[in-house]
Amino acid sequence: MIANYPQLLRSKILPRVQSPGQYTGGELNMTVKDPANMAGRFCLCFPDTYAIGMSCHGIQVLYHVMNQMDDFYCERAFAPMRDMEALLRQEGLPLGSLETSTPLAEFDAVGFSLQHELGYSNVLTMLDLGGIPLHGEQRKDSDPLVLAGGPCVQNPEPMADFIDAFILGDGEESLPEVNREWVAMKKSGLSRAEKLEHLARRFPWLYVPSCYATREENGLWIPYPKHAGIPEKITQAVVMKLDDYPLPDRPVVPNVEAVQDRIAIEIMRGCPWSCRFCQSNPIRRPVRSRKVETVLNNAIEAVKNTGYSEISLLSLSTSDYPWFGELMGKLREVMDCQNVSLSVPSLRVNEHLAQVGEALSTERHSGLTLAPEAALDDMRAVIGKRVTNDDLMAGCRIAFENGFQRVKLYCMFGLPGERQKDIDGMVELADAIGRLGKDVTGRFPTVVVSASNLVPKPQTPLQWCAMAPREYLLSAQRYLKRRRLPKSIQIKYHFVEGSLLEGVFCRGDRRVGAVIERAWRDGARFDSWSDQFFPDRWWAAFEACGVDPEPYLHRAYSPEMRLPWSLIEIRQGVDYLEREYRDAMRLVAEMGGSTTFTPIPTPEPPRWRKERS
């Protein structure tokens, strides 16, 4: 460790950067241990800013779980912003942990939480600044084990050059086990390669890329085991009883304002529904719930230990929690007297929606967020979204009757079989909800449609579908932008170039790693931020590396083909995905849709707009 590193950081760096509080540590409820008394040290890394990383519930949970181990110290590091990175390089200082300012290279292991594909360039920044060689094959015995987990590892191949081992599935049991095993091998005399091979054989939910060679099949690089005994399939780690792993009752309170600045409590993992576009559903099976008393006690302790005045109940479909009414009633009884409000994201229109309206404070929570994904019932049947427009209107009526004045709808462009009337339907559905709100409350509510672009993700029934081309997605956006909308309706669009890059990263093979490194060396950072994302830099990197992104995006696959992520297995199995895919394609044919995408003609602008121009 560099002598006087904390002092150098505070004297030379922090006075010159934006929001220095994100780099200091020392927060309320931060874990403090003596590193000298620990058998092992692990650094939990999040490849985005502190404000975003500290809003990630999984980071708080894993930090708590790892620090429950008496002989391990878990610390944290986040991606430095551009000004901080530049100054660290200028002063020759490494990226260190918040807790002890220890450079990443001095930990036994570091682990990255990969929540979004567009954070990949930041992983390379953190490795490089932390003093860890970028490529796994370049690391020595003294270098830390580099782990990764999170939803993005369902196709690990694009990051396989940089990560030593990927943990699939739940981390509460798997992360401590891998760390213990790695530290136990310190004095084994085994080489780094032998240690990694031991891990690959030892844990069925751990993918170690160095133990797999690739060969080309149907234009794709497919990984296969190098040696006998290396698993041909990687399974998902599953924690069957959530209550066996208590939630953090003393969560770390950020020094600076976080994106989600509240207590988060996961009440259920998995989802009882089967939306065909959703990756979280198949990779988080089976559905598991925490007991009401567990949630209630955790909420009481977390409020007492943090001072927060808001609790968010987390789940893929929170209102499907089996004891929803009982939980909301008990939480409100305890929290109302403390002026602590409740928020419930991930709502599904069902019989519990009325209870949500009664339990939430409409003074602070005037918005209802719903995810119909498509505007018409037959298209929702294709994607497995079992909710109708009648259900949506009934649910919105309940919300308006309980004081809500804002509705946000999540919809998607580029669904298989999509027709022009599906695009028109987004506006028509929003308009119908607005008129309903006027009938119920006497004034028009604000209705916001957030229109994203479908990326057919690995481990979903739509993984064999092609992604809609750039020209189609842009034409769909232009088409809606030319529609004359009521003032109470807003439509927000996702950046098409970002969705395309996300598609390459989640559907690509090991060749994409060279592109990620090239773009990073050319300055790519924080690509999930619209003001930091420069798509031309990425497309130039693809060209420079001789990698064509188009086949990854716009090629439809056959279920008989092996794909770069075929060695990763979900709990329900690939046969389930294939059945769901074939059912979706049957429904597309029945409704007269097509899986090819023809750009939508742009209509003439309204007359008033012509005159103004």
Q: If you had to describe this structure to a student in words, what would you say it looks like?
A:
This protein has helices spanning 5-13, 50-53, 57-67, 82-91, 120-129, 174-184, 192-202, 280-283, 292-306, 324-335, 353-359, 377-383, 389-401, 420-441, 470-481, 496-507, 512-521, 535-545, 550-554, 574-590, 607-612, and strands at 40-46, 72-78, 109-113, 145-149, 165-167, 206-207, 212-217, 220-225, 263-266, 268-269, 288-289, 310-314, 341-343, 367-373, 406-413, 446-453, 489-493. With 613 residues, it is of the alpha/beta class. The strands form five sheets. Strands 2-1-3-4-5-6 form a six-stranded mixed sheet, covered by helices on one side. The N and C termini lie far apart (63 Å). The relative contact order is 0.10.
Sequence-ordered SSE layout with sheet pairings:
Layout: H1 5-13, E1 40-46, H2 50-53, H3 57-67, E2 72-78, H4 82-91, E3 109-113, H5 120-129, E4 145-149, E5 165-167, H6 174-184, H7 192-202, E6 206-207, E7 212-217, E8 220-225, E9 263-266, E10 268-269, H8 280-283, E11 288-289, H9 292-306, E12 310-314, H10 324-335, E13 341-343, H11 353-359, E14 367-373, H12 377-383, H13 389-401, E15 406-413, H14 420-441, E16 446-453, H15 470-481, E17 489-493, H16 496-507, H17 512-521, H18 535-545, H19 550-554, H20 574-590, H21 607-612
Parallel strand pairs: 1-2, 1-3, 3-4, 4-5, 9-12, 12-13, 14-15, 15-16, 16-17
Antiparallel strand pairs: 5-6, 7-8, 10-11
Helix pairs in contact: 5-17, 9-10, 11-13, 12-20, 13-14, 17-18
